[in-house]
Each structure stands twice: as structure tokens, then as C-alpha cells.
């Protein structure tokens, strides 16, 4: 037996973000961890978009071929994540971390699990919403913890108000 620590996996750290204060804490944690490990970061924003909406005339669907709406939603999500990550990198300082930004339509837990296939760590925040806070975890973090194939860190909400 040796006292040599086990090597840290070389894959990137994946962090889920949705623009919430809780997600900002997760991104900040992931950036710090990426600096410590000397690895990259993959910031993932998953969004669900239902092309049908309810109006006074009943359910109406977005016409087929209306890709501009989907492209705009994707672009807005990607830009928001890019700005948040850049702001938090500036706030954190220290060694530069290479960041890949992914914005993808889909169920957040599944998008995160798919994006973490080659990762060394998956980081998510928690809101603790619904069903008594899912007994401390939100639905996405609960699903990720139960189905992940790699270590997961769930960053708790800041009890002081999540203002980082």
C-alpha cells in the first residue's frame, strides 16, 4: 500500500446552470474546483420549450418550420450563461479556466447526464422546491444524483440569500 493519492480523472467538470441564484453558487463552486484540478469547465443550460401555448382560442401550436423562435431561445440561453460565467470568472480571479458553454433544449437532468459522459465531476445547485423541498434537493438534482455515472456535488442554497 502506498501513500500516493489516486489520480484525479482528467475530464472536464460539468455544471448545470439556469440563471438562478442557486445555480450561480454551483457555477462558482465548479469554477473553483476546475482551478484546483487544472481542468476545463462545461457550463450546461438545459431549457424546456413547449411549442404549444394556451390562448383565448384554445391551444395553439407554433407553426411548423418556425425555427427562428427556437434559435432565439437557444441564443438567449447561451448568451445568458456566457455572461454569468464570465462575470463569475472575473469575481473569482485566479488561474484562467477554459469554459465550454452548452445550451440545449430538453429535460434538464437528462441534458446534464448526457453532457457529463466524459466528465470527471458533475455539479448542480439545489432549490429544494416542491414536496417539502424534495427533502432538501430539487427535482433535477435528485434525478441527477440517482442516475449519474460519476461523482456529483450538490451545492446547497446559500442561507444568507444566494447573492454571490
Outline of the structure:
By secondary structure, this protein is an alpha/beta fold. It has helices at residues 21-37, 67-92, 108-115, 131-134, 139-147, and strands at 13-16, 41-47, 52-55, 58-61, 99-105, 121-125, 152-155. 30% of the residues are buried.
> What number is the mean pLDDT?
82
Biggest pleated sheet: 5 strands, parallel
The total count of helices amounts to 5
- The amount of helix comes to 25-40%
Distance between the amino and carboxyl termini: 43 Å
Can you describe this structure?
- This protein has 164 residues and is α/β, with parallel strands linked by helices.
- It has 5 helices and 7 strands; from the N terminus they run βαβββαβαβααβ.
- It has helices at 21-37, 67-92, 108-115, 131-134, 139-147; strands at residues 13-16, 41-47, 52-55, 58-61, 99-105, 121-125, 152-155.
- The strands form 2 sheets. It has a 5-stranded parallel β-sheet with strand order 5-2-1-6-7, with helices on both faces.
- Helix 1 packs across helix 2 and helix 3 (108-115) runs parallel beside helix 5 (139-147).
- The relative contact order is 0.23.
Fold blueprint:
Blueprint: E1 13-16, H1 21-37, E2 41-47, E3 52-55, E4 58-61, H2 67-92, E5 99-105, H3 108-115, E6 121-125, H4 131-134, H5 139-147, E7 152-155
Helix pairs in contact: 1-2, 3-5
Key attributes of the depicted protein:
single chain; 164 residues; alpha/beta; 5-stranded parallel sheet; two-stranded antiparallel ribbon
Amino acid at each position: 500500500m502506498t501513500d500516493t493519492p489516486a489520480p484525479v480523472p482528467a475530464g472536464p467538470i460539468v455544471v448545470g446552470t439556469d440563471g438562478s441564484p442557486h445555480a450561480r453558487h454551483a457555477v462558482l463552486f465548479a469554477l473553483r474546483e476546475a482551478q484546483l484540478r487544472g481542468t476545463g469547465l462545461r457550463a450546461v443550460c438545459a431549457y424546456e420549450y413547449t411549442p404549444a401555448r394556451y390562448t383565448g382560442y384554445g391551444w395553439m401550436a407554433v407553426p411548423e418550420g418556425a425555427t427562428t423562435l427556437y434559435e432565439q431561445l437557444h441564443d438567449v440561453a447561451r448568451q445568458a450563461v456566457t455572461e454569468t460565467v464570465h462575470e463569475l470568472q472575473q469575481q473569482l480571479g485566479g488561474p484562467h479556466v477554459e469554459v465550454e458553454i452548452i445550451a440545449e433544449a430538453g429535460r434538464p437532468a437528462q441534458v446534464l447526464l448526457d453532457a457529463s459522459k466524459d466528465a470527471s465531476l458533475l455539479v448542480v445547485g439545489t432549490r429544494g422546491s416542491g414536496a417539502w423541498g424534495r427533502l432538501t434537493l430539487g427535482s433535477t438534482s435528485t434525478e441527477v444524483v440517482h442516475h449519474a455515472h460519476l461523482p456529483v456535488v450538490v451545492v446547497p442554497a446559500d442561507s444568507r440569500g444566494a447573492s454571490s
